[in-house]
Amino acid sequence: MVPATRKVDLGAIHRRLGRPLGLATEHELENLFGDCEPGAVPPLGAAYGIDSVLDDSLMEESDVYFEAGDHRGLVHISGTDFRKLMTGAPHGDISRHVQSAR
Fold first, then answer.
1. CATH value at residue 83
2. Residue 33 lies in a domain
3. What range does the domain containing 33 cover?
4. pLDDT of res. 74
5. Domain assignment of residue 1, yes or no
6. Whole-prediction pTM value?
């Protein structure tokens, strides 16, 4: 999980977990998250039986917002509750700032 303003750094995740990973295809996401609209997967891997990895920047937020499985609903949770929800999930510096196009 990374903030919307950042891009996943697969190399950093590989180094953090000690195993190679890749991005899932749309078809794979569709099969894993059948109750979600494409592109609106909530960051709750445990609810789907998969592991989650968090960017350290999320661990500092006072509030966290994420899509609720569709493009209409937004879930708001306090940073404290988010950290409790993600207890045990590995985290690290796994993203980079997105360069804005000018």
1. 3.90.960.10
2. yes
3. 6-96
4. 93
5. no
6. 0.81
